[in-house]
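Weekly puzzle thread! Below is a chain. First person to post its structure in token form gets bragging rights.
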Amino acid sequence: MNYRYRLATLEDAEQIAPLWVESAAERQEIDPSMRVKPNFDFNA
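Winning reply:
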């Protein structure tokens, strides 16, 4: 599979948001000082 680097666009938000949610949750477990606000909209 060939892959090209490109900047993300607003159309990519729905695909990127779940990755961001998972990353933030993992980071929060590792570093308790980093807290994600309740109901934070990762798609915004």
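Puzzle host: Confirmed. Bonus trivia for everyone else. The chain has a mean pLDDT of 87.
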